[in-house]
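G., the chain you wanted modeled:
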Amino acid sequence: METTILIFLLFILVLSIFLGFEVISKVPSLLHTPLMSGSNAISGITVLGAILAAGLAKGGNNDFAAILGGCAVGFAMINVTGGYFVTNRMLNMFKKKEKK
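Predicted structure as C-alpha coordinates:
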Protein backbone atom coordinates (compact mmCIF):
# COMPACT_ATOMS: atom_id res chain seq x y z
CA MET A 1 0.00 0.00 0.00
CA GLU A 2 1.32 3.40 -0.88
CA THR A 3 2.39 5.70 1.91
CA THR A 4 0.09 8.53 0.82
CA ILE A 5 -2.95 6.25 0.89
CA LEU A 6 -1.97 4.96 4.32
CA ILE A 7 -1.54 8.49 5.66
CA PHE A 8 -4.89 9.51 4.17
CA LEU A 9 -6.66 6.53 5.77
CA LEU A 10 -5.01 7.27 9.11
CA PHE A 11 -6.17 10.90 8.83
CA ILE A 12 -9.75 9.74 8.17
CA LEU A 13 -9.59 7.42 11.20
CA VAL A 14 -8.32 10.14 13.54
CA LEU A 15 -10.84 12.65 12.19
CA SER A 16 -13.75 10.24 12.65
CA ILE A 17 -12.66 9.43 16.22
CA PHE A 18 -12.44 13.13 17.08
CA LEU A 19 -15.75 13.97 15.39
CA GLY A 20 -17.54 11.04 17.04
CA PHE A 21 -16.27 12.06 20.47
CA GLU A 22 -17.35 15.67 19.96
CA VAL A 23 -20.82 14.72 18.73
CA ILE A 24 -21.49 12.22 21.53
CA SER A 25 -20.23 14.56 24.26
CA LYS A 26 -22.76 17.21 23.17
CA VAL A 27 -25.77 14.85 23.42
CA PRO A 28 -27.90 15.22 26.59
CA SER A 29 -27.98 12.12 28.78
CA LEU A 30 -31.73 11.61 28.24
CA LEU A 31 -31.14 11.07 24.54
CA HIS A 32 -28.43 8.42 24.89
CA THR A 33 -30.91 5.52 25.18
CA PRO A 34 -32.85 6.29 21.96
CA LEU A 35 -29.60 6.95 20.11
CA MET A 36 -28.16 3.62 21.27
CA SER A 37 -31.30 1.83 20.16
CA GLY A 38 -31.02 3.42 16.73
CA SER A 39 -27.35 2.59 16.44
CA ASN A 40 -28.13 -1.04 17.31
CA ALA A 41 -30.54 -1.15 14.38
CA ILE A 42 -27.84 0.26 12.12
CA SER A 43 -25.39 -2.33 13.47
CA GLY A 44 -27.82 -4.98 12.26
CA ILE A 45 -27.01 -3.85 8.74
CA THR A 46 -23.38 -4.68 9.49
CA VAL A 47 -24.44 -8.25 10.28
CA LEU A 48 -26.19 -8.52 6.91
CA GLY A 49 -23.13 -7.17 5.11
CA ALA A 50 -20.87 -9.62 6.93
CA ILE A 51 -23.15 -12.54 6.02
CA LEU A 52 -23.14 -11.40 2.41
CA ALA A 53 -19.34 -11.06 2.39
CA ALA A 54 -18.87 -14.49 3.96
CA GLY A 55 -21.28 -16.08 1.48
CA LEU A 56 -19.65 -14.49 -1.55
CA ALA A 57 -16.20 -15.49 -0.34
CA LYS A 58 -17.29 -19.10 0.15
CA GLY A 59 -18.72 -19.20 -3.37
CA GLY A 60 -15.39 -18.06 -4.79
CA ASN A 61 -13.42 -20.79 -3.00
CA ASN A 62 -11.40 -18.26 -1.03
CA ASP A 63 -10.97 -19.85 2.40
CA PHE A 64 -9.25 -16.90 4.08
CA ALA A 65 -11.99 -14.49 2.99
CA ALA A 66 -14.66 -16.93 4.16
CA ILE A 67 -13.02 -17.25 7.58
CA LEU A 68 -12.64 -13.47 7.81
CA GLY A 69 -16.31 -13.05 6.84
CA GLY A 70 -17.35 -15.59 9.47
CA CYS A 71 -15.36 -13.71 12.10
CA ALA A 72 -17.03 -10.49 10.96
CA VAL A 73 -20.46 -12.10 11.42
CA GLY A 74 -19.51 -13.24 14.92
CA PHE A 75 -18.11 -9.89 16.03
CA ALA A 76 -21.05 -7.98 14.53
CA MET A 77 -23.50 -10.22 16.41
CA ILE A 78 -21.58 -9.66 19.65
CA ASN A 79 -21.80 -5.91 19.01
CA VAL A 80 -25.55 -5.97 18.36
CA THR A 81 -26.33 -8.28 21.29
CA GLY A 82 -24.20 -6.28 23.71
CA GLY A 83 -25.79 -3.06 22.50
CA TYR A 84 -29.28 -4.38 23.21
CA PHE A 85 -28.24 -5.53 26.70
CA VAL A 86 -26.79 -2.11 27.48
CA THR A 87 -29.89 -0.36 26.10
CA ASN A 88 -32.14 -2.58 28.22
CA ARG A 89 -30.05 -1.82 31.28
CA MET A 90 -30.31 1.92 30.58
CA LEU A 91 -34.08 1.66 30.16
CA ASN A 92 -34.37 -0.17 33.49
CA MET A 93 -32.74 2.81 35.20
CA PHE A 94 -35.71 4.97 34.15
CA LYS A 95 -38.32 2.64 35.70
CA LYS A 96 -39.76 3.69 39.02
CA LYS A 97 -38.80 1.47 41.91
CA GLU A 98 -41.57 -0.21 43.88
CA LYS A 99 -41.98 0.79 47.51
CA LYS A 100 -42.08 -2.06 50.01
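The mean pLDDT is 84.

Shout if anything looks off.
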